[in-house]
């Protein structure tokens, strides 16, 4: 509080003499009386525990959730200000408020290295289930640092993911759904430039976002930056 009427004359904490005050503002203006700290000890701010997280602000969108806390004790006598009373975190819900599943474009794509594609095609041909697939080109927007910490031999391909690069992801049997004729998470139905989510199989810390560029009905993925939908 600011109370200029609470005025005295005497020694200040820095050794100088003159007018000195006993209100909280003297801590900032450095004109407290010498005994201010003993007479008016600092009372720190105390806040409650965080509440539970709310649901997503909107379903079927990449949005945020909220948790809050309240002030139990206000700070006094020059104590530090209270910390933030609201915190937000990223959030995606895949179900509408009515319990309907959201559009497929919001489902994160699960990907692995294209090196497994040859083995898949051999198995499909042997089973007589080989179907024509397709490819989708994406531009990588964000990548978590966890992709760099992939030490197993089957996860080393994740180190070569780079923000801004264009990648080619193939949809083939058995990931190709026989009813929808799409792979889960391929971004079908997404808006132009919409951020879509992906996750690397084998390392849950390796994930990120990308934008769908186009679908290629005849696959011509390069050997580098080539992946598979799972």
Radius of gyration, in angstroms, nearest whole number: 30 Å
Number of domains: 3
Label the structural class.
mainly beta
- Flag low-confidence runs: none
Beta strands, count: 12
- Most strands sheet: 6 strands, mixed, barrel
Euclidean distance between termini CA atoms: 62 Å
Question: What fraction, in percent, of the residue positions are helical?
Answer: under 10%
Describe this structure in words.
By secondary structure, this protein is mainly β. The protein has 3 domains: 4-39, no CATH class; 44-100, Thrombospondin type-1 (TSP1) repeat (TSP-1 type 1 repeat, Single Sheet); 105-229, no CATH class. The chain is 8% helix and 30% strand. It has 3 helices and 12 strands. It has a 6-stranded mixed β-barrel. It has a two-stranded antiparallel ribbon with strand order 1-2. Strand 1 and strand 2 (17-21) form a beta hairpin. The relative contact order is 0.15. The mean pLDDT is 80.
């Amino acid at each position: 509080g600011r109370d200029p009427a609470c005025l005295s004359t005497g020694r200040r904490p820095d050794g100088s003499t003159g007018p000195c005050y006993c209100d909280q503002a003297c801590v900032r203006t450095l004109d407290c009386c010498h005994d201010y700290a003993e007479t008016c000890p600092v009372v720190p701010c105390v806040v409650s525990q965080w509440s539970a997280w709310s649901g997503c602000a909107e379903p079927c969108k990449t949005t945020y959730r909220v948790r809050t806390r309240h002030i139990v004790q206000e700070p006094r006598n020059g104590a530090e200000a209270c910390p933030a009373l609201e915190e937000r975190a990223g959030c995606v819900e895949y179900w509408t408020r009515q319990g309907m599943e959201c559009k497929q474009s919001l489902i994160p794509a699960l990907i692995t290295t294209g090196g497994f594609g040859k083995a898949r095609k051999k198995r499909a041909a042997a089973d007589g289930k080989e179907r024509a697939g397709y490819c989708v080109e994406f531009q990588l927007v964000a990548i978590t640092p966890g992709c760099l910490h992939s030490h197993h031999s089957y996860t080393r391909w994740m180190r070569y993911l780079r923000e801004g690069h264009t990648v080619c992801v193939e949809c083939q049997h058995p990931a190709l759904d026989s009813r929808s004729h799409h792979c889960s998470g391929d971004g079908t139905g997404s808006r132009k430039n919409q951020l879509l989510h992906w996750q690397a199989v084998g390392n849950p810390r390796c994930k990120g976002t990308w934008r769908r560029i186009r679908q290629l009905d005849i696959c011509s993925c390069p050997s580098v930056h080539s992946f598979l939908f799972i």
